[in-house]
Amino acid sequence: MIATAAVALPTLLFAALSPASASEPNGTWAMQNGKVTVKVSNCGSNLCARIVGLKEPISKIDGKPKVDRENPDPSLRNRPLMGLSILVGMKPAGDGQWKGAIYNPDDGKTYSATVTHKGGTMKVKGCVAAVLCKTNTFVKVN
User: Fold this and answer.
1) How confident is the model at residue 9 (pLDDT cuts 50, 70, 90)?
2) Which of 13, 21, 25, 81 could form a disulfide with 66 if both were Cys (CB 3.0 to 4.6 A apart)?
3) Are 79 and 65 within 8 A, CB to CB?
4) pLDDT at 4 over 80
5) Average confidence (pLDDT) over 74-94
6) End-to-end alpha-carbon separation of the chain, Å?
7) 28 closest CA partner among 20, 36, 17
8) Quick one: pLDDT at residue 102?
């Protein structure tokens, strides 16, 4: 029993301090164009992100906080953009990389996506049919 604990404890400490956990992009990130700020965190073994800041949070149409107006589901069109989860099922795919999907409230569509984190930048690449892709770069806020 003592021998098992002696082996298990260093193994757990090594896992907790491994570079894989250091490469996770947890924290607050701003898109380089300043349009949106997101908070990235872990959701179990997946990566999650929600909108925590908008350059223009008020709609020019009705003067109210922006909502998910373009969502294909009419019952979701009145949910606020602030706090909206945008990364879906982002699973680890290598050192500093996750794959899953991203929801774009600008057009109400969900795209396959890859998140790549390196140092103080995070790149989010969304694709349609793996050939038409757009990459947005985020910089760490905190």
Assistant:
1) very low
2) 81
3) no
4) no
5) 96
6) 43
7) 36
8) 97
